[in-house]
Amino acid sequence: MAIPKVCGIETEYGIHAPGGDGNPIAASSVLVNAYATEAERRTDWDFEDETPANDARGFTREGSLAPVVETHLANTVLTNGARYYVDHAHPEYSSPECADPLSCVLYDKAGEEVLRRSMRAAAHVYPNAPAAVVYKNNSDGKGNSYGCHENYLMDRAVPFAKVAAAIVPHFVTRQIFTGAGKVGAETAALDRSAVTFQISQRAEFFEEVIGLETTLKRPIVNTRDEPHADPRRFRRLHVIVGDANLAEVATFLKVGTTALVLAMVEDDVSPPRDLTPADPVRSLHQVSTDLSLARPFTLSDGSTATALAVQWELYTAARKYADHHGLEVLGSDEVGEQVLQRWEAVLHGLEQDPSTLARQLDWVAKRRIVEAYRERHGCEWGDSRLAALDLQYHDLRPSRSLYARLGMERLVDDEAVASAVTTPPADTRAWFRGQCLARWPEAVVTANWDSLVFDLGTDPLRRVPMMDPLRGTAAHTAALLEASASPAQLLERLSA
Q1: Are 69 and 208 in the same domain?
Q2: What gap in Å lies between CA 434 and CA 78, rounded to an integer?
Q3: What total number of domains does the chain contain?
Q4: H or E element: which one contains 20?
Q5: Is 87 tagged catalytic?
Q6: 189-239, pLDDT tens digit by residue?
Q7: Side-chain half-sphere of 261: how many Cα atoms within 13 Å?
Q8: Crossing angle of helices 414-422 and 101-125, rounded to 10°
Q9: Given 87, 225, 243, 395, the catalytic residue
């Protein structure tokens, strides 16, 4: 039976660093350090369990490059259980583990607020430094892309090859509701003279079907085998093929539908026919540029289907799965039913008139803004003002953000988001991590996803493992934490 799909989102934010040499690494470090300084606490990340070169296939293809772990850059752990750090040349917020897709939306939004607070903190802590501007997008318009990655807990017993084969149709086609939208094209994969607007910001940057890399030769299915949990029981599917969404409905569907399809794989449930594209990479690019949503691509059996048709078949199979297996795997039947209802409604909207989804989907909202501007000003698609509009959609500054002016549909409110900035989810191990950091920041010397390291003032340091993402919840540990007046008492009780 499928295991609960604990999930999370890692977002690399775009950053503009004006003045001086415009060094994005330095500017990103300023943001992270300023936020930690204002919070008056810093807990470093523990890199001991980082194994980005492990490949789920059991081998690494010759010439492939595993992600580089940069231990020298700014890196801290937050009291909401998240990790906030500098990844290459970007500030990255990795949400805490979430037990359901709606919680994932909440903590993704909390990440946006962390970045906004970081910009304000940087202006206060470093008043003489040029003010950096942060964007929640996926490309700089000059051929460089940065990621928004998802993570899903999976059963180690399910062969990775089976997971990879089954998930490709969904990854190729889900962009019709998860895409963030983009003016033009940036890579040699597409005819830049012919592409005016794309559904996805990231699609054109992918070159392979399956592989380990994340920044070069990007694969649709990433093979990094780094479970951040008991490796005998669990696998973490590391997904790099998605866009960074501002629209909450898009994020909810991105995580919810993917978690449901993965649960179906674990329970050996699939659509009646094989929906795998004959050429997944080419189909990924084609779907992104097909604004009509009507252009079919060839499947591996020689038949054809549109992205909408593939999504309808996946939805139909998921509805039957839910009727037979229930939806507790998505955290609860209630949240699971919300995923299915939203999925169906969005597919109907895309089929009948995508413009009706302008308050739910990023690419539809952005396209409406761009088209209205073009009509008003008579712009050609190559006009630099359209690229500026594209970027401004993603600006996290409330006074500058086009997204913030659109009245997009909300699934979580501002009060809940503000709480999630500092308070961890109660229903995953993030609760224990975040509570320990809030109570005893001076005693927790390092932390990572599956352990905390305490310094009690005596040798040796004490490591507390957390190898199950669904242990360490409030239900498991709240009473224990309340009864412990010190970290020493906590560790004594844990040992007992």
Answers
A1: yes
A2: 7
A3: 2
A4: none
A5: yes
A6: 999 999 999 999 999 999 999 998 888 889 999 999 999 999 999 999 999
A7: 29
A8: 70
A9: 87
